[in-house]
Each structure stands twice: as C-alpha cells, then as structure tokens.
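Fold this sequence, please.
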Amino acid sequence: MYGFTPTDEQKMLIETVARYARNDLRAAGHEADEQKSLPKKLVSKGWEVGLLQASVPEAFGGFGERSAVTGVLAAEELAFGDLAGALAVMTPSLFVTPLLLAGSEEQKQTWIPPVIEGDWLPYTAALIEPSFDFDPNALKTTAVKEGDFYLLNGAKTFVPYAAEAEAMIIYASLEGTTRAFIVEPGDGVVVSERLKLMSLDALPLYGVTFENVKVPSANLLEGDFASVLAAMQVANAALAVGVARASFEYARDYAKEREAFGVKIAQKQAIAFMLAEMATEIEAIRLLTWQAAWKLDTGKEDACIDAYLASTGAADMVMMVTDRGVQILGGHGYIRDHPVEKFMREGRGFASFTGLAIV
C-alpha cells in the first residue's frame, strides 16, 4: 500500500516552487524564447528556492535528503511555468544527483559543496549523442583504461551550458557498460557553436566532442548507471506533465471564454471531448510518474521499468495534449502571442530529452 500525500515540508517547498513558476518563469518565458536568452536574475531566483540544496545531506553542504517524489512534484511545477527556465534552474542537478546516486564518499565531499553552497554555477552533464540510434545503454562515446587515466573519445549533443561549464559528468561506454566520469574543461574537450533547435531557444545547448581526453581514474563514478538513468526518465516524464498541463489549462480557459455562434466553444462536443481526453491522459501519466518516483525512493526492484514506462508514455501524451491545445485555439493557436504553439514545439522534443534533467 502506498500513497502520495505530501509531507508538510514537501508542501512548503512545492508551494514555493509553484509561486516562482507562475509568477516568474511563466511571465518571462515568452520573451526569453523570443530573445533566445534567460535573464540571469530569473535563473538565480529559481536557484535560491533551494530545490537541489534540499535534496543534499548536510554532510555535503545541503540541508535535506534526496527524494525522487519531491523532485518530480517540483519538476512538474517548474515546467508548467516555462520548460527552458526549468531546465536551466535544474542544470546543476545533472552534476550533483549522479554523484549522490553513484559517487564515492570522497567524490561527494570534493565535488558537491562547491556546486550548492553558493550562487547558481554551470555544472552540467552530457548523456545524449547525435545519432539516430542513440541508446543510453549502448553509447558510442567510449572510455579506455590507460594506466592511471581513462581516455574518452566521442560526441555528445544537447549539453546545457557546456560553453561555460565548470565541470561536466560525461557518460561513456567502458567495456560495454555505461559509466559516468567527472570531466573538467581542458585539452581535447571541444564545444560546438550553440545549437539551433525547434524549441528551448532560451536554453543554451551545445554539442561537445572528446578527443583522447585524459580523465583521472579517481573521476570514475563507481556506482551503477541504472538508477541514474531511471532518475532522468522520471524527471523527463514530470517535465512533460508540466508542459502538457500548461497547454491544457490555457486551452480550457480559452474555450470557456471564446464564443462561436452564440455559445462558448467549451460547450461544443468536439472541444469538450478533446479537453476531457487531455485531462485524462495527463492524470494517468502523472500517477505513473509518481509511482515510479516512489518506487525509486523505496528501492523497489521494478522501479526502472516504471521509470521507462513513465518517460515513454509521457512523450506520447505531451505531444497529443499540446497538439490539441493548438487545435482548440483554432487560428489563434498558430499565433506566437498565445503560448500553445510554444508548448507544442516543446512537446515534440520530449522523446529526445532524457538526459536534460534529473531528480
């Protein structure tokens, strides 16, 4: 038996995240997308909410314990505000959370405090590869043991803030198994020009190539990759739920106000049925995401299966919901003055976004 009633601490944190998402991220999202840049103050304010800090034990400079359930609740609210802003605020988690899950005590003591004890800093990670057959469990980026070092070779894409990164966690195949390495900027690490994508224009994403990059043996994370990947998948699912919910609520409210032939279009059967199906699919994937996060927190053996199902289901759901959000607005849905076209562009990417966030 399990339930998802949040604790008082979770309620306080999520309410704070939700206020920031609605009042700050949503208000800035359209202009940031148009200008292709997120204001630094906006990201800093989100960082000051303390979501990552609250998931790090005091021994490593934080003031809490990691909870995937808390993480997915917060990720949904952030994405409801603005997806690019959400990913920016969460970028340092890409570096810290894998250390919490798979790092040694020495690695945690060395690398986590500098990230979380001050202002937001561009610590990031690179999992996704520029290949049509990308598989996180069969990476083309390789690591080969050479004495006291590993040599990394390969290419990554969709790497947030790579051009200014203090350090990155790079995922590579070591003897056929995906492993994580802490890599600092240096010889052999080549960052491309900023990527131009269908969405996430406000978030700086880059390609990165590695040419015989020497990584000290001490920078190999000793833990298993499966739990890290599952944490990325539930994060991806939660973000998709947030974007879908944003599109649904905007379309619902529009339909309740817009009149055609003397009646509100929400009263039209075709519109009402679309809204009902959108709401149903959102709730189904939200519940599956919460269940997967709960299983991760409680160490259930099938947690990774639920995480995968949540992520793949969310990718289909968010595309359906955001497409219908545009349809319900009719011609207005295609105009950039309304956010539903932005939500649809973002929704299209979730099938490729696993690795951009982690909880």
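The chain has a mean pLDDT of 96. The first helix runs from residue 8 to 35.
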